[in-house]
């Protein structure tokens, strides 16, 4: 059975709990252990699928079609272990499950309560399917003291008690702020946070102290004393130039060593950090730089396109260049000439999105990329925009559009109501719940031999993750192909276009799926590597 590591947070949110968990997972993995990461989210949404990216950042999609918290993206990028439905749960889903059980009569007339029923459900979720693992890392969303988090903290307290210290470790991430006026680092918020945690029965084994400056020995001793933790287990987590340095930094400050010691493991093999050294070296010493314009909608919130910006960075790693991203709100192009913003860039990417606002601006960006022969990458909604642009401008289909935004004269993007997955027929209807009618998760695609994408992937059969309701309408593909916009990837049943490309262009590819979800720093996604290579080529032309 796996050893459990619980990672909780205190003082404030956004301290990088997800990243710290992912980096610890990567470190244990680098020592040869088999790890898996899970996230418990105390909010009442059943999943983040219906939450706005403005509120909650990106929705990360797993192979098995779960819409999950973006921290699962960090976990996958750091460990390469594909996450699944079983790795993210919210209070909403737990309540939904046990209310269903209660309605079925499973509780045999007993009163259903938070303790033990909800907490048992949480414990069951944590412990499911972990037999072949060495370590299961479980991050609790939010911060200690949040009312909605209490059942989760109670559940992990119980597990700590039941399984004992050889099987369970508690890591608590806090903030040690630097107060400019006093010129000092302050330990009091950490003391209070740990007091709160101990108040609900959890004594942390390790404190990870986020700080903008190195934490002097005296302050570490003080934190240790007040928080009942050994001084060597007060681990400083200082701001780093790149997130990918976290595994190396954490190892240098003894994080993994101390975690192992909590479990009584003294002689673990040292971690092989070579892949992380390669990544950090590439990130910090690139040979050049390219500029990519990302023309989308949710530009104010950095986390809305988390996987995308990481995948672009990975594309840079593959080409040994830094990728500078211009995040442009597409609505700007509805007022101002796109050229003024796009003249200097080496590549244009229109990412996934929903709804009508800003679509005309995205179409302008596609037009600029196509006419000026600037590398163009359209992802999901970005493909839809490219199809609409080509349909209107090249195929002469005036009024071409997507049925997502009304009833266009030429519905070149439309809701397809049926398709097959393996031997199964899948369907969806216009009226279904917003959360229930998407094509979600991994689907295979067959690539046309000799096409650019087949060359990029070095394969003709691929699998990528989806999250969308609308598709390129096959009723129009012949007309689009006649004008040079070819379908080069199809669903295996030949019903759904998955990839389209213009061959008479330096790099013009639109994909129906989200390749950014599977890119990793040590394994950049081939499409991003190739797109950035095209941008490097472009940058040498201008
Ligand atoms: N809004 C589009 C759809 O639902 C595209 C979604 C996306 O880009 N992920 O089909």
Number of domains: 2
**Mean pLDDT over all positions:** 92
Helix content: 25-40%
**What is the global morphology?**
globular
Architecture of the largest domain in CATH?
3-Layer(aba) Sandwich
Strand content: 15-25%
Small molecules in complex: glutamine
| Oligomer description | single chain
Strand order of the largest sheet: 13-12-14-15-25-24-23-20-21
Rg, nearest Å: 25 Å
- Summing up helix and strand content along with how strands pair, one would put the structural category as alpha/beta
Count up the helices. 18
End-to-end gap? 58 Å
How would you explain this protein's 3D organization?
With 542 residues, the chain is α/β, with parallel strands linked by helices. α5 packs across α6, α12 crosses α18 and α14 packs across α15. The protein folds into 2 domains: 3-278, Rossmann fold, CATH 3.40.50; 286-541, Class I glutamine amidotransferase (GATase) domain (Rossmann fold). The chain is globular, with a radius of gyration of 25 Å. It has a 9-stranded mixed beta sheet with strand order 13-12-14-15-25-24-23-20-21, with helices on both faces. The mean pLDDT is 92. Helices cover 35% and strands 24% of the residues. The chain is built from 18 helices and 25 strands. The structure holds glutamine. Glutamine is lined by residues 352-354, 380-381, 404, 467-470.
